Amino acid sequence: MSRALVFNRLKKALKKFVDNVAEVVATKTLSEEDLEPILEELVISLAESDVAFEVAEEIAESLKRRLVGTKVPRFKDAREVVLKALEESLVEILSKGYRRLNLVAEAKSRSPENPLKIVFFGVNGVGKTTTIAKFAYMFKNAGVTPVIVAADTFRAGAQEQLRRHAERLGVPFIGGRYGADPASVVYDGIEYARARGYRVVLADTAGRMHTDRDLMEELRKIVRVARPDHKALVVDALTGNDAVEQAKFFDEAVGIDFIVLTKVDADVKGGTAISVAAVTGKPILFVGTGQEYNDLEPFEPKRYAEKILAGLR
Known about the structure:
This protein is of the alpha/beta class. Helices cover 50% and strands 12% of the residues. Helix 6 runs parallel beside helix 7.
């Protein structure tokens, strides 16, 4: 899917909203009655663009607060007034729980006895293995060599995939025999890092369906043993509202600190980021934009909103 198609469906809905409101506000002061039918249509269109229904309603309420009573001054573009309100509403939603996080600086400040520990969660197929490799590349490229730990001891091929990434990147790899206790593998990886002075540990975990209760108990044990500094959930932008359900489930089960949104370059609707941020209140801090190791970017709410609205001005 080409990047030119990113957000097409969402953009179409937002453009129609902007055009409809601008047409009204250009000639009169906006009333709640003027906005209601337009906002109702927007909510339906957003829901069709993978924005969770409750989030679509939240965006509509935010827009109502900003736009009711608005009158466009002479010589000012009505569409620009509406677009400004829309951008502010999107940034508000995307900024829920957001904070800047400099993981490289945090790692460099650690002593060898106290490495930075990040445990990654997520169902199979979301791009978790590739994401861990991207984090390893980010750290090594900044002069901090991480240890990759493969604690998925159940899925065939899981350890081999991570091992290949570790070999390509030239970073240490710790795995365990299939069927071994995943928590003990993570413990061994942390002890390996401490003994050899590595300041970062990146641990993979099993990614069976998020409704698997046995998996949740396994992940809780890993968290108790590892006591990670950050619990990162990896979700796929293409899964729409299922990503929201995954985020809620993992957060209730083990608690998550931040979200990595993958396959953003192929997301033709664009609503997943808005929904995940709004429903969970957990910050999206990184986005995957391709398959290369350097295709990992810090998430910026304002920049993401601008990307959604690009071409509407």
